Amino acid sequence: MNRDFRAVLLAMLLISATACTSSKVFTTQFCKVCLSQEDGVLLLPLAWETSFRLLSVAEQNQLERQILEKLRSRGFTKVELYDRLDYELLKAGIKDLNDPKQLSKISSELGYPYLLGLSMGPSRAGESWAFLSPEEVNASVPTPSPDMEVSATVRIALIETDTGQIVSDKTVVSSNSGWSNTDEDGGEDYWNFASISGVLFHGVDKGTAAMVKDCGC
Asked: pLDDT confidence of 147, banded at 50, 70, 90?
């Protein structure tokens, strides 16, 4: 693989992973609380959700870091991953989040009034390349263009630890359709180097920002 081809391929990858990805945020529950930058928010581990098994452990960890960094960039001073408070949780006697009394201790004893939980919905990984010949492109009966879309859906829910209620609930649908190019012979090339994880990262970024905005007072 020569240097020029590698440069072109890298440019294609960057374009496909960023500019071609779009995300739409849908609100199931508008925010019921005023979320202050001083409020503690604990992110529930993605590994707890079986839906995230589609991602590698490294991708899950990267996504967790992205969410925490997004919150910190918005001025939140007390955000952490739940798993990193093992000692504090054990000391406070918090072992079962399904127990309302234990759940409320996360706020009263550890100072985190909110949990942030994510789950994945339907996702789709399309082909990275497809081709229509000049004959297919120019056929009297049009040949459908290949469906190259990569898509992912994620739910982002903010949970109040005092009550156990979901106080903000959003679903983000993200997709990347790639791009096409007509070659010198009239054939049509279709490309999409996006990944489910890359599309998902874009959606989570948008969804987290939308939640923070919705909960601002």
From this structure: confident
d(CA 14, CA 26): 27
Beta partners for residue 24, in sequence order: 173
Counting Cβ atoms within 10 Å, is residue 90 exposed (0-12), middle (13-18) or buried (19+)?
Answer: exposed
Phi-psi region of 136 (alpha: psi -120 to 50; beta: other; left: phi over 0): alpha
Collapsing DSSP states into helix, strand and coil, what is residue 130?
strand
pLDDT tens digit sequence for 26-79: 999 999 999 999 999 999 999 999 999 999 999 999 999 999 999 999 999 999
Cα separation, 172 vs 203, whole angstroms:
6
Beta strands in 59-214 (DSSP E): 79-81, 114-124, 129-132, 150-160, 166-176, 179-182, 188-191
Closest by alpha carbon to 136, among 92, 102, 182?
A: 182
Q: Is the dihedral of CA 20, 168, 56, 121 positive or negative?
A: negative
In this prediction, residue 133 carries a pLDDT of 87
**187 close to 134: Cβ distance less than 8 angstroms:** yes
pLDDT of residue 24: 98
Question: Which tokens sit at 159?
Answer: 């949970």
The neighbouring-strand residues paired with 191 are: 129, 179
